[in-house]
Each structure stands twice: as structure tokens, then as C-alpha cells.
Write a structure and sequence with these properties.
Number of domains: 2
Number of helices: 7
Radius of gyration: 19 Å
Strand content: 35-45%
Distance between the termini: 16 Å
Order of helices and strands: HHEEEHEHEEHEEEHEHEE
Number of strands: 12
């Protein structure tokens, strides 16, 4: 489940908390999404906030089928032992500024990567039987503008309801909808640190972000605004 859905449906999960660790005090552009519905397919265009969930949907559709994947896995530690344990092959590995970069260019069972994506940055490009999943080659830089074009996904039209349930969960009438655009504005007013914790990194990760989030749902040009208090 996407963390925005968790938030608005008041599901207090570790996954939801972890998504807000990166935020300090201030106002931020949150997750951006565009959905286009046609007779032949559903197309999803999204900011980097949705990468994990879109990859998961694509993996569910493909099941145990092997597909050709190209891309990289990025993290700040050596992942080779974990890759070997999961049976995931990779090409060359490089390291720059403390970040390990593993090159993927081989056949994979995509569900194996689902085991990685909640922990690491997985940037892949895949085409299979008219279905596509792609991301940009590098993560967006901190404090820079970004748009709903970091990740792209094409799925069959019969997955329309599933896509709406997951990302446009507050849509009331979905029968004739052609396009949905969703944006979020995040405002953090306070950061509440855990009492008695002296380790800065632990305190930063356990701290709760307090504020609010504004969600704009634009359905075929008609906007609907909703807000939710934050304490995550």
C-alpha cells in the first residue's frame, strides 16, 4: 500500500513513518501522479515517491516469469552478499561518494526485486509483451524541482480499478474518467524527538514529523482538495 493511502486512511505503519524521515521543517512538494485511461491500457506517470509501489504492481502482473531488466540498484553499503543469497545477478559494481551502484542487465524474476525495493533504491527499465516499466537513471537531487515523470508504467486496461483503488482511493465516480492528476503539498511545522535518546541518527529516525498535508485530486479538469494532519 502506498504511504499516502496509509496516511489518509489512518493506518499507522513503519513504512509510513519511514517515508517522512527525510523531511525537515518547512514546505515541500510531495508525491505527484498522473493516470491516463484508454481502451487498450492504463498509463501511469509518477514522481520518485511512487517507484516502489509501481514496481510492485508490475511484478504482480508478471508473476514468476523471467524478463529482461536493465538498470541499477543503489545503496550506501555492499549488497553483493544479499544479492547472492537471493540469487540476483548483477554486472559491474562501482562506488562513488559512499554509494554502491550495481548494474543490472540480465533476465530476472521481478518478484525477487520486490524483496529489495523497500530497503534500497531500485531503478529499472523493462518491456514485456506491450507492458513497460521505466525510471530515470539517477535519483532526483535534494531540494530540486521534480515532476511526475521519474517513473512510468503501462498496464492492461483491466487493471484500471486496481490502480484507482491504490492511488486515487478518494475518487467517487470512476466510470467515465479519462485522466487523473494528483499532487500533494507537505508542511512540517515541528519535529518531536524521542525522550532520552542521545544518539543523533537514532533520534532523527525515530522522531515524529508534525504538520499537515494538502492533497489535490484533479479528475478530467475538476479539482477536489482535501487535507490531513501529520503526526508520523
Amino acid at each position: 500500500m502506498h504511504f499516502i493511502k496509509d496516511l489518509f486512511q489512518e493506518n499507522e505503519t513503519e513504512h509510513l513513518h519511514n517515508k517522512f524521515i527525510r523531511y525537515s521543517r518547512g514546505e515541500f512538494v510531495g508525491p505527484l501522479l498522473k493516470l491516463k485511461f484508454a481502451k487498450a491500457n492504463v498509463k501511469v506517470y509518477a514522481s520518485f515517491h511512487y517507484t516502489d509501489e509501481l514496481l510492485n504492481l508490475f511484478a504482480e502482473k508478471l508473476g514468476d516469469k523471467q524478463v529482461r531488466a536493465k538498470g541499477t540498484v543503489l545503496w550506501n553499503k555492499d549488497l553483493a552478499p544479499e544479492f547472492e543469497e537471493l540469487g540476483i545477478k548483477f554486472g559491474k559494481v562501482s562506488k562513488a561518494r559512499g554509494i554502491f551502484k550495481y548494474t543490472i542487465d540480465n533476465d530476472v524474476v521481478l518478484k525477487d526485486f520486490v524483496k529489495l525495493m523497500n530497503k534500497y533504491h531500485v531503478l529499472l527499465n523493462i518491456k514485456e509483451e506491450g507492458l513497460t516499466y521505466s525510471t530515470k537513471k539517477a535519483l532526483p537531487k535534494p531540494n530540486k524541482e521534480f515532476g511526475a515523470d521519474f517513473c512510468k508504467l503501462t498496464l492492461p486496461t483491466e487493471m484500471k480499478d486496481l490502480i484507482i483503488d491504490e492511488f486515487a482511493f478518494d475518487l467517487e465516480n470512476r466510470d467515465k474518467v479519462k485522466q487523473i492528476e494528483i499532487s500533494h503539498n507537505i508542511k512540517i511545522t515541528d519535529i518531536v524527538l524521542p525522550e532520552g535518546e542521545t544518539d543523533f541518527e537514532i533520534a532523527r529516525r525515530q522522531a515524529k514529523r508534525v504538520g499537515n498535508i494538502e492533497r489535490v485530486l484533479n479528475v478530467d479538469g475538476e479539482e477536489n482538495l482535501s487535507q490531513k494532519e501529520l503526526n508520523v
